[in-house]
Design brief:
Blueprint (H helix, E strand, L loop, with lengths): L26 H12 L11 H35 L1
């Protein structure tokens, strides 16, 4: 395989890099500076990002599972009550 067909991907989003900081001086601001300048963290949270988004999505999925289970249980109980009457 040639490397041109499968280029290496680092996973680093270079659009967030802020070259006004040197990486050896402030690595965090170097890699996240542009994002920090353009992204506003909502006042009701201390952080924001992909992990928060995943948390919200997972929480919604768990709620759906619990509600579906409760509905199944209600139907089951209703069927038992109906057949017992």
């Amino acid at each position: 395989m040639s490397s041109a067909a499968n280029p290496l991907v680092s996973g680093i989003d270079s659009s967030h890099i802020d070259n006004s900081f040197r990486p050896q001086d402030d690595l965090y601001r170097y890699f996240n500076g542009a994002w920090l300048k353009t992204h506003e963290i909502p006042q009701d949270r201390s952080s924001d990002g992909v992990t928060y988004k995943l948390f919200i999505e997972a929480e919604a999925q768990v709620r759906e599972i619990i509600e579906a289970r409760q509905e199944m249980e209600m139907r089951r109980r209703s069927a038992i009550f109906t057949t017992a009457s």
